[in-house]
Amino acid sequence: MTPPATSATNGPDRFAPDMAADPHARLTFDLDVDLCVIGAGLAGLSVALEAAQHGLSVAVLEARRVGWSASGCTLGSVTPGYGVPIGDLIARIGIAHTRELWTLSREGMAIVRDRATEEAMPGIALSAGALEVSNVDLGDRLVERLQTLGVDFATEVEGWQIDHVRDVLRTKRYFHAIHFPDAFQLDGRRYMRGLETMARRAGVRIFEDTPALGIDSSGVRKRIVTPHARLRASDIVLAGNVHLGSPSRRLSETLLPMWRTAVLTAPLGERLQQAIAFTGSIADTDGVDHYRIVGGDRLLWTGPETTFEVAPKRLEGLIRRRIAALYPQLGEAPIERSWSGAIGQTVHGMPQIGELRRGLWVASGFGRQGLATTAIAGRLIAQGIVHGDQRWRLFDPFELVWAGGKIGRVVGQGVSIVERRAAITAGLLARYRERAAERSRIREERLEAANRGARINRPQPQAAAPEQRAETGVPDARRSEPSTID
């Protein structure tokens, strides 16, 4: 999720969702194109841009405004991997398959990096590095994870020990960390607008306030009905996330809506640099907190996720307390603004990328996946349409699964609360054990010091003189001779 600007590249406002860009016209006339993309978010525009660059005529239909929901609230994190832990992926699909998916995510990172230049997207505000910090002592598991990422998946990673972590992040809440030096962050709003500009320059026609009311995907030429016009296309891409609705109820019902709230603090001055000496993004392994420094002296921080929409203002106090718990030296960090957006979370936690039936494609479920996944989805689908590239089939194991409707949202909210509390409790226990171990170590050191002092000060017995031994009848070993028996 990103901050509005009082200047072109600076100021608090440049990190908040922006709907002030010039609007696109509605579709009011019948249109015939090669590809119709439904949804003008990060995934939809990525598909549209790639397809247009391959020479296709492309139209994008957006029910509201470009990037109005989740895509307008991205934190701008570009990291390798997906929303599912790598160990869980290996357990489900095997190491070889997981390695291919991991390679795709790194290809997605390269796509975003190539696009997000200061020349192409002024004020993109790139920052390097990402930390995945642990709320508990990982111990041997850290070595195992580094082995998997660095050796098996050829990823540039660094393992940080506890002392190093706490030297950079001055909080006792964290233990070990994994550093991804080639990960990066950017201003998500500017990337969204930059992607829109690139697509338009490539020939993509974007229509806002144009919901797709119905789709007929049978036949060679698919038909899409809008309020004021009809559109025909050889291929359709559904990239509308949880708000897709009537065009494909089956797809939208596979996504659990999650509202993610973000806040931007007021300037915190030098005390922020004294508390956090890391300019990249920081996320804990339990998904409780995700934050980074923006503008040099502010914090951009995501709060809890909810399966029902909650006014962001109501969650500001919770986030403020969370900041104070992690970094008490920051005091009560004043929050300047807050906002939220709905992301779509799949049951299996992976994105949905591929062809549902001939000519009908899906690019959805990007909640918790990062920008790199939307970029690679655009490339896979465009190359699949134009060249018949089958790499999108690497996502076949992650089929459409019903998310449970309203009951699923209630259960999901309950699970989220339980997991969050369990993570916080595990952190409390880990810190208690650490303090107990430290107290035990101090006691042992004091006991050892006391024992050493006692040994030094204990009076040593002295050997008796020969005269004393004679008087007491103690034989002098130096003078004694063996007795002789006559």
From TrEMBL:
MF (Gene Ontology): oxidoreductase activity
Organism: Rhodopseudomonas pseudopalustris
Gene3D superfamilies for this protein: D-Amino Acid Oxidase, subunit A, domain 2, FAD/NAD(P)-binding domain
Name of the molecule in the record: Glycine/D-amino acid oxidase
Biased composition (Basic and acidic residues): 476-486
Domain FAD dependent oxidoreductase: 34-383
UniProt keyword list: Oxidoreductase
Biased composition (Low complexity): 458-467
Keyword Methyltransferase belongs to the record: no
Pfam families noted in UniProt: DAO
Region annotation Disordered: where it falls in the sequence: 447-486
Record-level GO cellular component terms: cytoplasm
